[in-house]
Amino acid sequence: MMVCQVKIRKWALSLFFCLGTLFSASAQDFRFTTNVSSTRVAQDEPFQLQFLLENASNISSFQPPSFNDFEVLQGPSQMQGTSIVNGRRSDYLALIYVLQPKRVGNFTLAGATARVNGENKRSNPVTIEVIKSAHGAASAPSQPPVSQQPFPPRRSSPDDEYTEGILRKGEDVNAKLRKNIFLKVDVDKTNLYEGEQLTATYKLYTRLPTNSSVTRVPAFKGFSAKDIELPNPPQASTERLNGQLFKVFTIRKTLLFPLQSGALELDPVEVDNQVRLVKMVHNNQKRSRDPFEDIFNDPGFKDPFNDPFFDDFFNRPEVSYEDVPYKIQSTPVKITVKPLPADLKPASFNGAVGNFNMTAAIDKTNLSTDDALTLKITVSGQGNVNLMNMPKVDIPNSFEKYDPKVTDNIEKNSNPLSGSRQYEIALMPLEAGDQTIPPVEFSYFDPVAHAYKTIKSEPFNIHVTAGKQNKRDKQDFSVDKNVLIPVHRAPQHWTKDSGYLLGSLWYWILLALPLLALVLGIIYRKRLTYQQNNMALLKHRYANKAALKRLELAARYLKEGKDHAFYEETSRAVWGYLSHKLQIPFADLNKELIQSKLSSRHINGTNTQQLFELLDNCEMALYAPAQSNDKMQGTYQQAVKVISQLEDELKTKQPVV
Amino acid sequence: MSTVRHIILLLLLGCGALHAADLTPQQRFDKANNLYQQNQYSDAARIYQGLIDDGYTLENLYFNAGNAYYKSNRTGQAIYNYEKALLRNPDNRSVAHNLALANQRVQGFTDELPLLFFQKWWIQWEHLHSPNGWTTGSLVLFWLLIGGILAYLLVSRLNNGIMRIVISVVGVCFCLYLFMSVFTYTAAHSHETGIVMSSGIKAKAAPDQNGKDLFELNEGMKVQVLDATAEFCKVQLSDGKTGWVACDEVKRL
To answer: Which residues in chain B touch residue A505, judged by CB atoms under 8 angstroms apart?
Structure first.
């Protein structure tokens, strides 16, 4: 059993070995070398030792050799990069140590071991010859070895920061500051659509030690801004600009969404700097300048101001430092914002720009009017999530709609801004029956494709049953309560509005007509009663006329000589006259009555006598004819005279009734 | 095939629109009803409005116009037409229902106080006859009255106490009818109520464009017009607030 296991292990190992060699062969010229800056060094002289792994992939461990005879001043520092030599690209990883020999003599440093691709590799060993120090050993032991020992110049090192911090003689301070400290605004685009994202980064570039504070931050007028959180305290990175290395501090990084179209401007940022410049003092002139530089070149002094050594160094009388105030401002950046294309803009578009996805769902499809359902709309994607409006949903009238609950889930420090926004709308069914919520539609503008895109959900069919309603609901939840009663389609009786009768002339005419009739009726009635009351009066009034008519007839008979007819007519005229005048019926007439009637009217004397004479004459002539023509003439004259006289008297003397 | 039919239909409709004046009111009414059925509410509303403008002031026409306006989201016009229909017949249940629905759309709508029993009785009494009905009634009664008086005067057989009672009853009825006729006439011509026709109108403290804003009026609100200058009307809301607005914004019933 054991044997078997061992065999398997051996087999596996050999297999791995084979594979390893295969892989190493296939990799591009893997090399693992040890280099030294110098193989012959003085005893107090530091030197550099570099282990270089070229084209190594998957390095899992690294083991340096033992540095028994050397003191490690610094290291290991790691350097990684790519070099292209003669068109061949190679990746390298270098581990650098700075060593100082302890003793004089020949020393061999064994190679370092590294595990590459699961395989142990060893670099070549190097031999170092250490000779006696040229300066003599007098100064060396009294001082800390690090501070005083100048390193060999390493100009190619990436860490040559703050070398400009020394103000050389004759240099202009302002020019120097301008050259070495400035602000820069990076924008990823300057021409974009309304609502499209823009990333603006405000950076401080410096090659000088400085204590800076931001005094004015941009307001971003016309934009909606969302800041990306920056590490605190600010972390510097390095950037090479025109062949010079700068330390770069990011002051502000903001995601901007233009809210309006047109030419907009990013406000400048203002930074107050206190630049610490080192000034050379005259009595220090004789000192070589190299050591200073080398000291500043030391990669260990990442933060020279906090280093006690630094202060110690600068407080020495030979140099002085100065804090120079320097205010800088970034240049404003012009941004051109294009309006979103107006044509083809979908009706459901309400400002989302980016790349989105939308889902809509309801939590139940079967419920009663006592219950409520939730419509959940989630919009997720990249773009102006923070500015998004709710997609329009046409909730039918048969639902009571409550204000949506909005939940934002925006990824922190995402660039481009991405995340999701969720709307939860509670809906209360008001009517029983099968209801349909129309599809939720969401449109956005895709700035990459320069086109509007619309996402549409499925319509939701909901079956609502009548629930146990409380008393309030009796009316509200009845079917068709919230449905408009449809139009009346029955034929109508089409009459135009004829205006108001009351205001028309006809009304008043029709009202006046019966009034007129009434007036006429009243007049007629009055006349009627008058006539009824005065029939006798009328007869009396016409008595004279009737008598005269009779007398005219009598006059004719007189001419014709008909004496009998003449007397008859004359007596009738007189008797008729008296009958009418005195209002005595014709049959009742006699002389006594006439006498009394006339005397009651105070008519006496000659008239009455003549009247009775005339009446006697007539009677006599009637019963004893053969009267002469003259006599007839005299009788006629007498009759006319009597009647007219009597008429006059009766007129003046009204009867006393 | 169906597209061809559609085109023909459209042409017919176009011709119909051209010769709208030639159609009988009933045909126009039916056309509007069909448009309403096809959800072309704005077109339907236009035809109904045309009929109303031509002087046909039927209760059902106002009702249908209100529906069409409601469906085309012109709440102010819808409420105006429903109110017009209600003025003609306050007992019309369907108008009251649809008016209540339309009022739900009015922002800041405050319901009017329910009427007291005698107010209801009065309204029922008022609508016993149409205004012209009252007037015609008064005319007929007047003729009867005069005829009675004449008969009483001229026919001696009718000249008795019973006739006198009959005449006085007819006289009282005539006075009542005349009063109601004048009342309905003045009520119809006073235009004391109006409907606000657009939203977001600021009621001012004085009849002046620069007056202080008091409150806001929204489309469909029913207001009482208390006073008016040439341009401004003093309106009162059902909750008692008063303010001045431009008269153009209020369509009087």
So the answer is: none
User: How confident is the model over A319-333, as a mean pLDDT?
Assistant: 82
Coil vs helix vs strand at B230: coil
Contact A464, A429 (CB under 8 A): yes
In the Cβ-directed half-sphere of A588, how many Cα atoms lie within 13 Å? Answer: 9
Nearest to A492 among B26, B136, B182 (CB): B26
Residues of A with Cβ-Cβ distance to B103 under 8 angstroms: none
**Set of chain A residues whose Cβ sits within 8 Å of the Cβ of B150:** 517-518, 521
Nearest to A494 among B56, B67, B147 (CB): B56
**H-helix or E-strand spanning residue B173:** helix B161-190
Q: Decide if A514 and B136 are in contact by the 8 Å CB cutoff.
A: no
The class level of CATH for B2-104 reads: mainly alpha
Provide φ and ψ at A613, rounded to 5°: -55, -45
Which pLDDT does position A474 carry in this prediction?
40
| Percent with pLDDT over 70 in chain A | 77
Residue A29 gets the label, from left (phi > 0), alpha (psi -120 to 50) or beta, of: left
What is the full DSSP assignment across A486-497? Answer: PPP-S-----B-
Name residue A175's amino acid. A
Choose the weakest-confidence range: A155-164, A167-176, A274-283, A633-642: A155-164
Residue A532's Cβ-count burial label (10 Å; 0-12, 13-18, 19+) is exposed
Mark yes or no for CB contact A514/B147 under 8 Å: yes
| Minimum-distance CB partner of B60 among A482, A492, A515 | A492
pTM, two decimals, is 0.41
Interface test with A, best of B53, B89, B135 (most A CBs within 10 A): B135
How many other CB atoms are there within 10 angstroms of residue A144's CB atom?
Answer: 8
Average pLDDT over residues A311-334: 71
Structural domains in chain A? 29-134 (2.60.40.10), 163-333 (no CATH), 356-476 (2.60.40.740), 535-652 (1.20.120)
Token code pair at residue A429: 């069914």
Q: Which residues of A touch B (CB under 8 A)?
A: 482, 484-498, 500-503, 507, 510-511, 514-515, 517-518, 521-522, 524-525
Mean per-residue pLDDT of chain A: 76
| Chain B residues whose beta carbon lies within 8 Å of the beta carbon of residue A515 | 146
Contact A223, A173 (CB under 8 A): no
| Domain spans, chain B | 2-104, 118-190, 193-252
Each residue of A19-34: pLDDT tens digit?
A: 444 444 444 677 888 8
Chain B residues touching A482 at Cβ < 8 A: 101
Q: Which residue has the higher pLDDT, A431 or A137?
A: A431
**How many CA within 13 A on the CB side of residue A325?**
3
Q: From start to end of chain B, where are the E strands?
A: 193-196, 201-204, 213-217, 222-228, 232-236, 242-246, 250-252
Reading the block at residue A594, the tokens are 């006439």
Count of pairs with CB atoms under 8 A, one residue in A, one in B: 87
What kind and span of H or E run contains A379?
strand A373-383
Quote the pLDDT of residue A656.
46
Residues of chain A in contact with residue B175, where contact means CB-CB under 8 angstroms, are none
Domain at B193-252: CATH architecture? Roll (2.30)
Min Cα separation B146/chain A (Å): 6
* Cα distances (angstroms) measured from residue B61 to each of A136, A438, B185: 122, 32, 22
End-to-end distance of chain B based on CA atoms, in angstroms?
Answer: 48
Rounded Cα–Cα distance for residues B249 and B253 (Å): 13
3-state secondary structure of A267: coil
Asked if the Cβ–Cβ distance from B146 to A514 is below 8 Å, we say yes
Chain B positions touching A514 (Cβ under 8 A) are 142-143, 145-147
B150 touches chain A (CB under 8 A): yes
